[in-house]
Design a protein that fits this description.
It contains eleven helices and eleven strands. By secondary structure, it is α/β, with parallel strands linked by helices. α2 packs across α4.
């Protein structure tokens, strides 16, 4: 999806959603017009950081929430899932964002399931010969067993592997869902520090292959079918697409009224429409 275009697309739905969700964002008290004194206005700053997969979605949700609550500021940062876990654990942010499950060593945090997301295997749009790979073929390409496109029905050209950096939630989920416990991504893979950076780099290399969040798919790359299943939100929701992972907001300890109001807002049925519009998978 083109991110500039998505900003335009979201305006009307967000406006409608904000009108629908006033009760959720405004501290959730159902009052009539004469009971305004019983409604507490929200104010303050929320700091969030972490997964670059969650980041553009969190920015949309924050914009909608602050439009309803003009005395609130929500600061959204990236850095990757490990940064999100570390930051919320250390108390430097109110909310961490992760696009993977927590490790056994990452304790003391509460997970709030925001959405689910597919990981797409992507190639350059000019790679017209290869449209589908099996999970085994993907694993063999990223581990260096398959090194030439001709081995999977493409031209006689070397495959250029691109991947996310260590600590990326997208990489961790890819390793768990595709590579398995004992198989490693090839050491000569070109590493990128965000979904957007990988998409940009891959769009300039006709022989490259990489993996990105569903939310970043647009005309700059071509998403391959996996095991004959197209990389679409519909196939992610119906469970047929095989590479799906959770997206979490993370908190530590008791949350403030403001932080809890924002999380409740993001998880509400009405606001979950934004998630679908942005190419992610709603959990409601």
């Amino acid at each position: 999806m083109n991110k500039i275009a998505s900003n335009k697309k979201i305006m009307l739905p967000v406006t409608a959603i904000m009108l629908l969700a006033l009760g959720v964002a405004g501290c959730g008290n159902d009052t009539d017009d004469n009971n305004d004194d019983n409604t507490t206005a929200l104010s303050g700053t929320i700091n969030e950081a972490g997964s670059t997969t969650v980041q553009p979605l969190a920015e949309k949700l924050a914009a909608a929430f602050t439009a309803l609550n003009p005395n609130v500021k929500v600061v959204i940062g990236g850095g990757g899932s490990s940064v999100g876990v570390k930051s919320v654990t250390e108390g430097t942010v109110d909310i961490g964002a992760a696009s993977r499950d927590l490790k056994d060593t990452e304790t003391g945090l509460t997970k709030h399931l925001l959405a689910k997301d597919g990981i797409a295997i992507v190639v350059h749009p000019d790679n017209t010969a290869v449209n589908n790979l099996t999970i085994d073929q993907v694993r063999d390409i990223f581990s260096g067993v398959i090194t030439n496109w001709s081995q999977v029905g493409g031209p006689d050209k070397a495959i250029h592997v691109m991947a996310r950096e260590e600590g990326s939630g997208t990489r961790t989920a890819f390793e768990e869902l595709v590579m398995g416990a004992d198989v490693r991504i090839v050491t000569n893979a070109v590493l990128q520090n965000s979904n957007g950076a990988l998409k940009t780099a891959l769009s300039g290399d006709k022989d490259a292959i990489g993996f990105i969040s569903f939310g970043y798919i647009d005309s700059a790359v071509k998403a391959l079918s996996i095991n004959g299943i197209a990389a679409t939100s519909e196939n992610g929701k119906n469970g047929t697409y095989p590479i799906i992972r959770p997206l979490y907001f993370l908190t530590k300890g008791t949350t403030s009224e403001l932080v809890q109001a924002f999380i409740d807002y993001c998880l509400s049925d009405a606001v979950q429409q934004i998630i679908t519009e942005e190419g992610y998978l709603s959990v409601n």
